[in-house]
Amino acid sequence: MRVLGLISGTSHDGIDAAVVDFTTEGAELTGAVLASTSVPYAPELRARLIAALPPAQTTLAEICELDTLIGQAFAEVAAEVTAQTGGVDAVCSHGQTVYHWVDGAHALGTLQIGQPAWIAERLGVPVVSDIRIRDITAGGHGAPLVSFLDELLLRSREGTAAALNLGGISNMTVVGPDGLVAYDIGPANALVDAVIVEQGLNPLGYDDDARIARTGEVDERLLEALLTDPYYALTPPKSTGKEHFHLGYVHEHLAAQGREIPVADLVRTLTELTVRTVARDVRAAGIGFLAVSGGGCRNPLILDGLRAALPETEVVLADQLGAPADGKEAILLALIGWCTLHGVPAIVPGGTGAREPRILGTITPGAGPLVLPAPLGGIATLTLTAAAAS
């Protein structure tokens, strides 16, 4: 079964897509990655999306329009990618998260937009979507769902290994002798991106190659204040998002400083915040092997900073696990879609805090009647092969 995975993450800069051809032999699953790509949002659409995100106020009319426009953008990417790979049997679309409702230690709701019916209509194949909420109803945080893929890729390693994703928010899956734990660490690119966009420092909307941060210095007083955020002291499982770590959050901390901080120093300090929070948790968990993915792994100040702060840890890109560092979440979505269509739960105990595994998502039929494969018992092993970026 060929499945297309689609996602726009918490950096909301574009749509990641991956086509994976899955084959099974008993409980052994192999996924051949046929394509992996990322397509930026149109600037005007991204601007509307940013303007509607918390803590800004918006309207139901704007959410309805964005749901359609993002759904159409996903459908366009889906059509382009599937044309390159000779078609797919199904799609799993995460859509775009616009709100993740967390109250204290509990996630109570989550909202992703990007109407999947546009994809089903364009491609004529079933589309799995709305994948996070079932985990939340089972007591989980709905995040990080990537822990399911991480556990399959890391389970054979000795000692304690982890997979780190550096998107808008940093999340980590730790697999060791005592089992698995996964959670959101804190901001990765979210705060830096917010400042870059506000100041108009880069039309790309992020600090490409850390060019801006390189020109600044870490402001230790500001960094110390940022590190006192109570979220970091919460016990996993836990999740967070831009509802907490947003531009207004930066402004509040700057106001509390009562002094001017050069913008380059601010960007450098927020970049260092990611390094410090991640390194602290990696050391505390005794992690010997760390596979990094997400946009933040392309920031040399973050990746080199982690390697310098963690001399006892082997820090590599997720490519070494067969999952391209820039396409890992889209591959996850393809895997979740395959699991849903085959009746396989895509939650691993300890990954999200859910009471027990659940089959994720809802299914929008394609052009014809919905015909599902015979349910499978589960996955014992997963091997990813032949990644080919397009």
From TrEMBL:
Q: Matching InterPro entries, A to Z?
A: Anhydro_N_Ac-Mur_kinase (IPR005338), ATPase_NBD (IPR043129)
Which keywords accompany this UniProt record? ATP-binding, Carbohydrate metabolism, Kinase, Nucleotide-binding, Transferase
Catalysed transformations (reactions):
1,6-anhydro-N-acetyl-beta-muramate + ATP + H2O = N-acetyl-D-muramate 6-phosphate + ADP + H(+)
Any idea which positions bind ATP?
A: G9, T10, S11, H12, D13, G14, I15, D16
GO BP annotations of the record are: 1,6-anhydro-N-acetyl-beta-muramic acid catabolic process; amino sugar metabolic process; peptidoglycan turnover
Q: What Gene3D superfamilies does the record point to?
A: 3.30.420.40
Mind listing the GO molecular function terms for this protein? Answer: ATP binding; kinase activity; phosphotransferase activity, alcohol group as acceptor
UniProt pathway? Cell wall biogenesis; peptidoglycan recycling; Amino-sugar metabolism; 1,6-anhydro-N-acetylmuramate degradation
EC number(s) recorded for this UniProt protein: 2.7.1.170
Its function, per the record, reads:
Catalyzes the specific phosphorylation of 1,6-anhydro-N-acetylmuramic acid (anhMurNAc) with the simultaneous cleavage of the 1,6-anhydro ring, generating MurNAc-6-P. Is required for the utilization of anhMurNAc either imported from the medium or derived from its own cell wall murein, and thus plays a role in cell wall recycling.
UniProt family annotation: Belongs to the anhydro-N-acetylmuramic acid kinase family.
Q: What is this protein called?
A: Anhydro-N-acetylmuramic acid kinase
Gene behind the chain: anmK
